[in-house]
Fold this protein.
Amino acid sequence: MIFALRCLGVSLAFFLIFYCVLSFAITQSWKLVQRHAHWFASRHAADVLFGMRILPVALATLLCIVFVIPSFLMFEPRISSEPVGEIPLALGLGCSLLFIAGAYNAWVAYSRTARAVEGWLKDATELPTRAAVRIFEIRPEVPSLTLTGLSSPKVLVSSSAVALLGADELNAALKHEIAHVRRRDNLKKLLFRVCIFPGMSQLEAAWSAAEEMAADDEAVTSTREALDLAAALIKLSRLATVQPACALTTALLQDGTSSVNARIERLVVWDASRRSLSRSTAEWYVRPALLGSLVAVFMTYGIAIREVHTLTEWLVR
């Protein structure tokens, strides 16, 4: 039991170190990547930003599983009176508090969203549709059109939006929200709430803007549909002041007129080639780099875990 607790404490300490260092690096470097986002289709740009946002927790977890835990299990004696130092204890406690804060943050966001959606759905009417997503007409004017739910998504459309939009415009707007369902954007937002770190809000906002453009591109297949979606954005933006979105919902109209204007401008000059832009050029570099990294890890794994154990020994002391 003591050995297992020591292993857990060291693993948590290293996770916290990896996570904080990687998160800080992401907060300082993501804008450099965003400058080159125009090389890719919007969906790929959004994927890159999402990947950067979750990279710290994913890579920190991987490093602990692949290096830290095996090195401790292989080289640390099972019976040892070696005390655990104050530093790993403090880091382990800090990591535990980080997990608790992330879980609490996610729970608060989920609870507030659930309460808001429950209020919106009072006296709601389900609209007939052949889509896989249930669509409800709600009585409040705001939100005018939004996607809710994680495992069982629903699209909520206000009665004012139904009355204001033409059939083609409403259909284009609904296709936009269904695109968010396919990309599981509300679930990604929940993951953001779990993986907390100061300074990530701008990256999350950039990801959200890229996701909106990606959903626009997936919702339209012709100039006519693009203009219908642009018209829907214009009409709904004039309908009422945009209500601040709940944390775990995806509204057709996000906060900020600049992002809405940018989307309208893209739709007015819609180009079919945007849907076919690929990341194949980047893959020529990314895939060989990943393969080379795996080979390098495989060839040097024994040496690497010995060095990691040396670090754990230094940390424990």
